[in-house]
Structure formats: structure tokens, C-alpha cells
Amino acid sequence: MLQNAVETKQREDQDSENSLPESYRSVSVAGGTGILRFLKFSGPAFLVSVGYMDPGNWATGLEGGSLFGYRLLWVIVLSNLMAMVLQSMCVRMGIVLNKDLAQACRDYYRKPVAMALWILCEIAIIATDVAEVIGSAVALNLLFGLPLWAGVLITGFDVLLLLALTKYGFRKLEALIITLVLTIGVCFLINVAVSQPNWAGVFGGMIPKERLTGQSLAAAVGILGATVMPHNLYLHSAIIQTRAFEKTPEGKKEAIRNGNIDTVIALGMAFFVNASILILAAAQFHSKGIVVDQLEQAHELLKPVLAGGAATLFAVALLASGQSSTVTGTLAGQVVMEGFTKWRVKPWIRRLITRTIAIVPAMILVTSAHGKSLDGLVVSQIVLALQLPFAVFPLVMITSDKRKMGDLKNPQWMVVCGFLIAAVVTILNVQLLVESKEVGPVVVGVIAVAMVLFALWARRFPAPTPQPTVAASADPESA
Q1: What is the pTM of this model?
Q2: DSSP assignment of 59-122
Q3: Phi/psi of residue 147, each to 5°?
Q4: What's the rounded Cα separation, in Å, for the pair 447 and 394?
Q5: Taking the mean position of all CA atoms in its chain, how far away is CA 43?
Q6: DSSP labels, 328-345
Q7: CATH assignment at residue 55
Q8: Which of 57, 93, 370 shows the shortest CA–CA distance to 222?
Q9: Which residues contact residue 301 at a Cβ distance below 8 angstroms, ignoring those fewer than 6 apart?
Q10: Is 478 within the bounds of a domain?
Q11: Residue 131 sits in which domain range?
Q12: Number of folded domains that form the chain
């Protein structure tokens, strides 16, 4: 009897260590072959994809398209390719290590460094939530005339009702998010069709033809900086573990393959939406010499199209984008808090805390911006740009470490691409901050010095010798 009690306690402790324990390995992928087997596995990447089409991306896409037409479409192509590489690393981490990025950082680095990374990540989560809440609030204002502060309150708490779907299975939540993503896609498909873009210009814009300088460089950096989101890296490495794949070498390889295909398809959908935003802005605004830098302004200018239908579709898509991204942002907040701190508390309490933390700064921003949404979105993107290197570099380092990942570590080409992406994203984000009127070069210099000091400080706490996690990952389910 004592032995049974000990075994029960061990199982409970292990469950508490799992990412999103209430949904861990809850989706069966057994049975079927080919496409049917893949469909059982697909879904996690679509939850991640909404972070690549959240309201923060809308602001940069509208401004870039209205200023430069189709010429920056290649930046969106490049951004999505970079995102696919990073999200594939997250898939590999979750499947091979059975840990999300927050847990992996906690185990890979000494406690002082891990705690510093946690604090930085929480700031990024708040910034992400602020952009998403403001986007939904703007959509509610455009559709129903609600004041922004009321939209913030409604958006801040209705997400808790949506997340209650996980009680009925993680697949139900995935179905909701996929429905919202398809809603966004259909709305933009119709709007792009009626805007009658210059298709030769569209396809030509996917190939870089001129050097980026001045304002075009700032716009391109803004698009790239708003695309790769830190919280998506934590989220994907966690929700991939909702799949009950076989924990054998072959089972893990199959799971990685299916997860990568899921990522390519879902981020392909995100590319369509982001490209559509820029194409719509280029066709409707750039051709008329109108520069758009506000969501409300774009909605107003689209009213003459389709007898007001285009403007309504724009607002509906914005609402779907904000709602879906607030759901996944809240899940990411849960993953980060649990992964770094091992804080055990009921899921609804964790989510309520995350929501409340996001609502306060969102409310401050919308009330201080005097009705203008872009100010809050710009501030949130700046904060995300600062945190991004602290998520990308650990992801690449850990998934490239053979001592942790074994034979399933990143292949060499992915290691090179990963560090190159991390360096490029960091440099371009710094450039974005330099170009930003809200920050400026002096503040960026101070931030850069702080980052260097953090790196030097982190070297005082070298990582413990990683244990051969893969070799020791004997699992009763695979026995």
C-alpha cells in the first residue's frame, strides 16, 4: 500500500511538471495512415499562427502597403520563412525534450539567469496581450460603437469563457481558433478580390529589387519585427505536447515530421493574411496617395467599397484576429508562468491573473491615447522587439545541443539558419528602435549596454552539465 501511495505521488509530481497539464497528451494520434494520420496530429500550429496575424501585424502591414505599394511583399515572405524555421525548432523541442521553452530555460540555465529570463518574458507577454486586447477593442468600437475602454474590459474577460472549452477537450479549442483563422482568411479574400490589385505588381513585389533606405527600411524592419513573436516560441513547444505520439525514436521522428508539415500549412495561412493586408493597403490607399497609420482610418476609407461591406469585413476580421490571439496569448502566459516558476494553481486562476495584468496597461494606453489605437500598438511592438533575442537565442542553443537533444538535435543547416535568424532579427529590431520616434538612438544605446551587461552577468552562472534527457526518457507509455 505504501508503494502504491509513493507511485501515485510520483505520478502527480510528474503531471505537475508537464506543459499545460490539463491537456497534456490528451489528443490521440493513433490509427490511420497518410493524410488521415496527419489530420489527427494537425492543429497546434494553427493556434500559433494567429500570433503572426495579430493586430500588431495589421498596423505595420497597412502602413507599409499604403506607403510603398507592393514593394515590401518580399519582406513578408522572408519573415514567414524565418518564422517557419523557429517554430520547427519549437516542435522539435516539445517532442524530444518533453519540455516547453520556459521549462527548458529553467533547466538549461542557472537560477539567477532563468529568473531574469522569466521576468523579461512576462513583460513580453503583457505587451503581447496589450496589442491583442486593444485590437479587439478597436474592432468592437468599429462594429458596435463601443468606447475603447469598454471593449478592453469585454475582451479582457470573454477570453476566459472561450478558454473554458479546454474542459471539453483541447480539440474543441483548436476548432474554435481554426474557425476564427478561416474567418479572417475569407474576409481578406473577398476584400482583396474587390480591391482589384495589380497582380503583376503583387508577384513582382515578392522579389527584392531595390535597396531599402530611410523610410522603406523602417517600414520593412517594422514588418519583420512585428512578425516573429516571442510568446509563440513558448506556446508552440507546449501545445505540441497535447499529442499522444509514441515516445520511441521512430514515433518522435514521425511526430516531428507531422508537426513541421502542420507548421508550414498554418504559417502559410498567416502569410496569406499578412500579404493580403499589405495588398489591400497598396491597392486601395497607395494608388490614391493616402498614407494609413491607424486601424480606424483604414476602416473609414474602406466604407465606399462594396457599399460599406469591405469596411465591415475588415472590422470582423480584426475582431476575429484579436479574439483568437488573446486566447493563445493567455495560454502562452500560463505556459511561461508554470514553466519558469513551477507555480501550481488552478488553470482558471492563472488565466484570470494573466488577463488582469494585461487589462491594466491596455486601459492606461487607450485612455491616454485619446482614442488612437496605433500608439498602444507601437509601444507593445517596441517592448516585444526588446525581448525577442532572449527567446530566440535560448531556443536555438538548446535545440542544437546534442547533450540535451541526442540524435534528434537540429540538423547543421538549421543550426546555421537559426543563429543567422537570431542575429538578423536582433539587428533589425535594434534598427527599428533607432528609427522609432518613441525611443530614439540614445535610449537604444542605453538598452544595448544593458543587454551586454546582462550577457556578461549571465556568464557568471554557467549552465549546469545537461543530462542526457533523450536517452533517459523511458516512458511507461512506450514500454
Answers
A1: 0.85
A2: HHHHHHHHHHTTTTHHHHHHHHHHHHHHHHHHHHHHHHHS--HHHHHHHHS-HHHHHHHHHHHH
A3: -65, 155
A4: 19
A5: 15
A6: HHHHHHHHHHHHHH----
A7: 1.20.1740.10
A8: 57
A9: 284, 285, 290, 292
A10: no
A11: 40-458
A12: 1
- Written as one string, the DSSP assignment of 447-460 is HHHHHHHHHHHHTT
| Distance from C-alpha of 395 to C-alpha of 402, rounded to nearest angstrom | 13
Per-residue pLDDT of 319-329, as tens digits, reads 888 888 878 88
What nine digits make up the cell of 330? 493567455
Helix axes 441-458, 412-435, angle to 10 degrees: 140
- Residue 362 sits at the vertex; the CA angle it makes with 317 and 164, to the nearest 5 degrees, is 60
Question: CA-based Rg of the chain, rounded to a whole angstrom?
Answer: 22
Residue 289 inside a domain? The answer is: yes
Are the C-beta atoms of residues 266 and 45 closer than 8 Å to each other?
yes
12 within domain boundaries:
no
The SS3 assignment for 243 reads: strand
**Tens digits of per-residue pLDDT, 284-332?**
888 888 888 777 778 887 887 666 688 888 889 988 888 888 788 888 8
Residue 111 Cα distances to 119, 296, 341, 352, 464, angstroms:
12, 45, 10, 27, 10
Q: What is the DSSP letter of 477?
A: T
Residue keyed to cell 500550429: 45
- Phi, psi angles (nearest 5°) of residue 138: -65, -40
Residue 375, burial from CB neighbour count under 10 angstroms (0-12, 13-18, 19+)? middle
- Give dist(CA 116, CA 284) in Å, integer: 45
